[in-house]
Amino acid sequence: MFHKILVAYDGSDGAKRALRAGIDLAKRYGAELHSIAVVEKLPHFAATVGEVKEAVRELTTRYEWISQEAVRVAKDQGIELHPKVQPGHEVEAVVNYAREGKFDLLVIGFAGHSHAFGRVMGGTAQNLARLTPCPVLIAK
Amino acid sequence: MENAWIAMVMGLLILLATMASVELGISVAIIEIALGVIAGNFVGLHTTPWIDFLAGFASILLTFLAGAEVDPDLLQEKWKESLLIGGFSFLAPFLGAWVFAWFVLGWTSAAAQIAGVALSTTSLAVVYAVLVETGLTETEIGKIIMASTFVTDFGTALALALLFVRPNWWLVPFILVSVGIILAMRWLHPWFFERYGNRVIEPEIKGAFGALLVLMYFGEKAESHAVLPAFILGLAVAHILAKHRLQQHRFRVVAFALLTPFFFIKSGMNISLRAVLANFGAMALLLIVKMVTKSMGVYPAARRYVPADAAYTTLLMSTGLTFGTISSLYGLNAGILNQGQFSVLVTAVILSAIVPTLIAQRFFDPRHRLAAAESQESRAPAMSAAREEN
Predict the structure, then answer these.
(1) pLDDT tens figures, B334-370
(2) Best to test chain B binding among A39, A41, A52, A62 (most B CBs inside 10 Å)
(3) In chain B, how many H helices and how many E strands?
(4) What pLDDT is attached to residue A120?
(5) Measured between CB atoms, which of A47, A122, A131 is closest to B383?
(6) Do B390 and A90 count as a contact with CB atoms less than 8 A apart?
(7) What are B70-124's pLDDT values in tens digits?
(8) Residue B82: how many CA atoms within 13 Å on its side-chain side?
(9) Per the confidence metrics, is the pTM higher than 0.80?
(10) Minimum-distance CB partner of A87 among B25, B132, B249
(11) How many CB atoms sit inside 10 A of residue B101's CB?
């Protein structure tokens, strides 16, 4: 049923649950497993290009390290994980990557905010579920 | 107020600004300016000669760093588009704001010229952050906007250096020394890096700082401004810094940790909230003049090269921050602007970093058009909604 699975992975507890679910499904269906980490929170209205470049570099390095951790976890389970790190808006970047990569399933973690907080912050999981062109599994 | 107390307060403000910047995802410069406004208007913190000097040096350093961010290959690749868009992006607001401040606001001609220079700028940093976040840095439109911004920045540096020079005999050594330093740094860097580089005592950074201080000294003696040679020096060594990433990183660390905070906090301290509120209309009009004249200058040229994204290009070219603040502070320090004029002008400059960016991202984001073109089911409005909700 699933041939190509994408896990949104930022190293958080929710993302770790999503990774476990993704690995389990990849094993079950013999699917390719990919992950994406979105480098966001770049400084808005920066005064120097250096500030932005350094922020991109620092965050990319951090997310690459986090993604390598995920690769190790998957490898321990006998699954090869293909990680991707890219800057952008978290919902938009994941949606576009899922669309361009023609993934069959997106697995994301639930952040566990309160209902009120989720409403204020917009609910990343909710937006991903709404906009991603493939089925979305939310791991709680 | 004693120096130790002022230094302590400045140190704490710098730390607070850094933490707030990380938490809020807003540039540390904006926060530093905001904290400077609070410190100057409500805490009674005032500037001192040592803060003035550090801020002055930081402004030259920021100009050097802006020059060093220029991508010569990109400029060469897009020279025609960038000259046209970047040239008009400088010229139209410069003339428009100058005339407006002179005839409508009744500023002196020199003060109006400062307004023209400060509002003619385009912030490469603001533009770059937006392009990175939207993934457009490597696209045609991203390249054209960045290359054009280099040209606008150069126009601003040129205007600031030429308009306010009061020629004396020091101008000759200033020009000779500037040319000598630029050539020496281009030619001698391989030998210097080989013999002295890669040490914890940082000879490379000290070399660049030494060169900038020499430029500042001769610029002051010539009653000119070191901003133009500093920008050209940055441009001349851009490829060297690009090759030596570690040195570039350390250079930025020293600049952002020790020097630029003094420039931005001092700028904020000199903003009189009372003057901004009393002249709110003038401030809003200056911002509008900047955006309208940028549109008049950039939009027709942008229509020629990036017709589908001409409005987006125009809005991003309307942003400004660092060069505008440098120009305004120069006007205040040189006695060309009074504190009220400085407050109004620099507030308009800061708002120009925010307002055009938000409008461009909200209404003219090229990704929405591309997504609509690529997909049968247009998801662009939904994505906008998601961005808003998030």
Answers:
(1) 999 999 999 999 999 999 999 999 999 888 887 776 6
(2) A52
(3) 20, 0
(4) 42
(5) A131
(6) yes
(7) 888 888 888 888 999 999 999 999 999 999 999 999 999 999 999 999 999 999 9
(8) 26
(9) yes
(10) B132
(11) 28
